[in-house]
Structure formats: C-alpha cells, structure tokens
C-alpha cells in the first residue's frame, strides 16, 4: 500500500529537479489538490482507475479480516492515528496530544512510525537523542522530543512495535502514527484525521484524494480546523474539532529566547515564513491570523534542507515549523542563523475525547 505515496513523492521530486527553492515546486501539488476538490474533467477521466483501486483496497482489508493474510496482535492496546485524505491533516500534533493525554491517565505510551524519509527503514530503529532525520525521519524526531516517550520507526509496524516493547517493557499502550492502512498490525482503536478540505470530491485515488472510502469504519473522526472554519458537511456529525494554536516563537539556536508572535511582527517588515509540511498553507494562515505580514515559502513535505532555501533571502526574520526545526538544528549552515525562529503549535481538543478514547481501550477491537 506504499505505491501511492511513492508516486506522490515522485511527482514532487521531478518538479524539484528544476529548481532550488520552494515556491514553484508546489505548483504541481496545488493543481492536483485543486483537481481533487471537484469532479472535473481530470477526475472523471481517472475515475475508472479509482474503481480498480477501490476493489483492490477492499479485497486487501477483507483478506486481513478473514485471516487469509497474517496480522500481529500485541500484548498491549494499539491506537492507530492516520488519515484517508492524502497529505497533511495534523497527525503529528495530534499524536503528541494523545501521548500526553494517555500519560495523564496513568498509561505509559510508546509510539511507532513509518519514519518517512529515513534511510534503511526496512529495519526497526529507536529514536534517540542524537538521532538524525535521515536516520529516523523528521516526524518521529519531533514526537520523541515533544512527547518525551519512546519512539521506534520501521516499515513493518508489527516488528517496530515488538522492538519497542522489548526495549521498553514498561510501555502499556502503543500509538501507531500514520499506520491506518497497515492491517498487518491489529488495532484496538482507530482515529482518522481530516482538515477543512473534508473528503475532497469524495473519490479514491487517483481520481480523488482518498486512500479509502470516506465511509470506512473508525472509532473517532478528528477535524483539524482554523478558528474561522466549520466542520465540512461531508464528515460525520460526531466529528471532533481540533485546532492548532501557536502564539510564541523560539529562536532556532537558543530555544530559551522566546517572543510573542504579535511582538515579533513589530520588529521587521521583511518577514519570511517557510513550511515543509503536508499542508503549509495552514501554517501561513496561523501566522497571518496573529497579525503578521509574511512572504510565504512553501516547501515540499519532509524537505531535508540540504539545499539552504534561506541563503539568498534578505528577510530579517524567518519563521519555520517545529517539524522543519528538527532538521535545521542538525545543519551547520542553518542552525546558527539568528534570523530563524520556530513557531511551536499545540493541539487544542475537547477534554472529553481523552475519556472516550480510554473507554475504547477497554477491550475494544475493530473488525
């Protein structure tokens, strides 16, 4: 089930070969995303292929359900956090919130992840304090740092989970980050995230943005929305609203130096905001809602910063996401740039959701 992500990233990389900074490279993404929001000519042409994809995914899930394909049952509960809408929907901030909520409830959580972008992800690898993004991926680095919990990455989620439990036997609940379609790992709770785009045109890949049907069974639907957005009509009425809040910035080379975003905006008229995340527009919207006037630089998701996009910029202040910061702090040419500030965000969700998840953990299994 990884081919779709490889194709998606391949399209983006092919565009990147023809440029060295991150603005024009998003044109392809924007065109594809726009096409997926409506049932236009391109989507209709691709619709027959999406029906083949629908049959394939349904057959695969049925095979796991019937036991025809082997799956792993762990000795501890498993919560899967993922999406069916391709692209960023806020899974990482939610996973961090979930780690903290479970710890407050008395659990000892651990996290497993694909470790997208990591080298040699075929084998399981624990995220350590000195791990690099090329070794374990940027999102696992951020989850380990913010969640302060053990994190193990690997393509095989079952093997990664078993490695985690062997290294940390005190862990009594596992969160699988972005493993919704990895049915080889049995799960007790499924949480699916969306954002303001809802289900797009409602069609599966490649005619639409969905990996699986919007009606697929799950325990919780979370919608990542800005304060001005409403829950899309295409999502269930039981969907839980999540908002990402960021009001301060930390200097990249010294996180003890912090400033309110509103104050930072008064210091310069040349402010650049860069986002190498699944949906960078969400980051730019957050900054603009804080009253900042920015020049936006959209970078590809998981951008590695080996080519410094800030080298030729005349910006006096540069704002980046936490996900980008874990990589920038490991690059000598970037980490000491005094212009760069990081904007941490936290997920704001109704406290009742944590109690509902704890109830589901009591022996519940999706079949």
Automatic annotation (TrEMBL):
GO MF annotation: an example: lipid-A 4'-kinase activity
GO biological process: lipid A biosynthetic process; lipopolysaccharide core region biosynthetic process
Transmembrane segments: none
Annotated ATP binding sites: 85-92
Entries under InterPro entries matching the protein: LpxK, P-loop_NTPase
HAMAP family: LpxK
Family label: Belongs to the LpxK family.
PANTHER family: TETRAACYLDISACCHARIDE 4'-KINASE, TETRAACYLDISACCHARIDE 4'-KINASE, MITOCHONDRIAL-RELATED
Annotated protein name in UniProt: Tetraacyldisaccharide 4'-kinase
Upper taxonomic lineage: Bacteria, Pseudomonadati, Pseudomonadota, Betaproteobacteria, Burkholderiales
Encoding gene, per UniProt annotation: lpxK
